[in-house]
């Protein structure tokens, strides 16, 4: 009898130790271990031959509008956010149901802080569930706070995005001082309607000279492939270019060279972003007509400056904070509608608290 009790006790101890070890292992490998991922070398040179077949396309149906929904700064952060995932899911569900996008862009900071592996996998699964092409760029928080400190390093994030069947992301050349620079075209009946440049402005404080050279190389290649006509371009990046600040100051002090496009102009936070390095002029030479950024949740406007529309996109989701000013919630999403060769921009504002699961 005594032996039997001893044996049962031993079994119970083994089960408890086994369970504790399993829980610790899962917690360690999902929340603490740092995965750096595989290093892929793709060295780009200006002398490389451009091949239009390497540029992905999203086809617009003729006679139908084409909607691009931008989700900015979703910022899924930590265990608490993971447990509240249904709240962000409900908001994104609503934004998609309302705008019926043909393409979803994410202008960076999809995740925030170190527990990014679970956060990113949850978000990617959600985006894949809509079966709509989607295209993210990195922000300054996607692989840790201002550095590669997160569970999933930058290469791992690239792997996750590149494996998602509906995601257009490509890590792009690895010698541009950043990862996740890529280009795709929106076509109609096979004809290029728009070129979309996705730029990583993430951790670095400026768009690098290599990025600019690569951008121009792509734009030139697409122009040649398009019979010598440069398609209108859009550029999505996380941090605002300095011209966002210039345009806002000129708007504020009525310089007369800025046109207000959005219904209102909201600026509660700093307009600081990337340093001046000619990226704006380079984008203009590539016939880019829309530049879209996120990063500061308290800013939201579309201003036309030097024939380019500069859009500070509306923050998506209640995670990571948003600005609430009386009845104005700076939350929801900014979306673009391509209709009869014209592109309009609008906000879908929501009170994110309504999506909280009680
Ligand atoms: Fe940011």
- Which percent bin holds the helix content? 25-40%
Q: Roughly how many Å is the radius of gyration?
A: 22 Å
Total domain units:
2
- Pick out the low-confidence regions: none
The computed structural class is alpha/beta
Bound molecules: fe (ii) ion
Oligomeric state? single chain
Q: Helical stretch count?
A: 8
Mean residue pLDDT = 90
Secondary-structure element string: HEEHHEHEHEEHEHEEHEEEEEEE
- For the secondary structure, the number of strands is 16
Q: Looking at CATH, which topology of the largest domain would you report? A: Purple Acid Phosphatase, chain A, domain 2
- Can you summarize the main beta sheet? 9 strands, mixed
User: What is the CATH homologous superfamily assignment of the largest domain?
Assistant: Metallo-dependent phosphatases
CATH class category of the largest domain: Alpha Beta
End-to-end separation: 52 Å
Task: Tell me the fraction of residues in β-strands, as a range.
Answer: 15-25%
Describe it.
By secondary structure, this protein is an alpha/beta fold. The protein folds into two domains: 1-33; 36-355, Purple Acid Phosphatase, chain A, domain 2, CATH 3.60.21.10. 31% of the residues lie in helices and 23% in strands. The protein is built from eight helices and 16 strands. Helix 6 (209-225) packs parallel to helix 8. It is globular. It binds fe (ii) ion (FE2).
Summary of the model, kept short:
With 358 residues, this protein is an alpha/beta fold. The chain has helices at residues 2-32, 79-83, 85-99, 116-129, 154-163, 209-225, 242-252, 279-285; strands at 56-60, 66-71, 103-106, 134-136, 182-188, 191-198, 232-236, 258-260, 266-267, 288-293, 299-305, 308-312, 324-325, 328-329, 332-339, 342-349. It has two domains: 1-33; 36-355, Purple Acid Phosphatase, chain A, domain 2 (4-Layer Sandwich), CATH 3.60.21.10.
């Amino acid at each position: 009898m005594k032996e039997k009790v001893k044996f049962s006790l031993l079994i119970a101890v083994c089960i408890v130790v086994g369970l504790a070890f399993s829980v610790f292992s899962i917690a360690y490998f999902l929340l603490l271990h740092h995965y750096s991922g595989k290093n892929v070398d793709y060295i780009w040179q200006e002398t490389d031959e451009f091949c239009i077949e390497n540029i992905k396309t999203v086809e617009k149906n003729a006679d139908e509008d084409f909607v691009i929904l931008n989700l900015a700064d979703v910022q899924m952060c930590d265990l608490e956010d993971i447990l509240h995932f249904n709240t962000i899911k409900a908001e994104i569900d609503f934004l998609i149901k309302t705008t019926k996008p043909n393409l979803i862009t994410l202008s960076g900071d999809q995740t925030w802080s170190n527990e990014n592996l679970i956060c990113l996998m949850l978000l990617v699964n959600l985006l894949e569930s809509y079966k709509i092409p989607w295209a993210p760029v990195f922000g300054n928080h996607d692989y840790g706070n201002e550095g590669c400190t997160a569970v999933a390093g930058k290469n791992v994030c690239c792997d996750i995005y590149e494996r998602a069947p509906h995601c257009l992301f490509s890590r792009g050349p690895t010698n541009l001082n950043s990862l996740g620079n890529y280009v795709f075209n929106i076509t109609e009946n096979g004809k290029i309607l728009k070129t979309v440049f996705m730029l990583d402005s993430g951790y670095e404080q400026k768009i690098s000279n290599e990025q600019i050279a690569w951008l121009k190389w792509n734009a030139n290649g697409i122009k040649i492939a398009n019979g010598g006509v440069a398609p209108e371009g859009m550029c999505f990046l996380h941090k605002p270019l300095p011209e966002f600040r210039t345009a806002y100051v000129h708007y504020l002090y009525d310089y007369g060279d800025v046109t207000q496009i959005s219904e209102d102009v909201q600026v509660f936070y700093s307009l600081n972003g990337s340093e001046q390095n000619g990226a704006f002029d380079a984008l203009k030479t590539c016939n880019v007509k829309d530049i879209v950024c996120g990063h500061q949740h308290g800013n939201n406007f579309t201003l036309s400056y030097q024939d380019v529309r500069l859009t500070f996109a509306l923050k998506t989701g209640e995670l990571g904070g948003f600005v609430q000013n009386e009845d104005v919630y700076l939350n929801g999403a900014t979306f673009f509608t391509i209709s009869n060769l014209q592109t309009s921009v609008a906000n879908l504002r929501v009170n994110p608290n309504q999506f909280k699961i009680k």
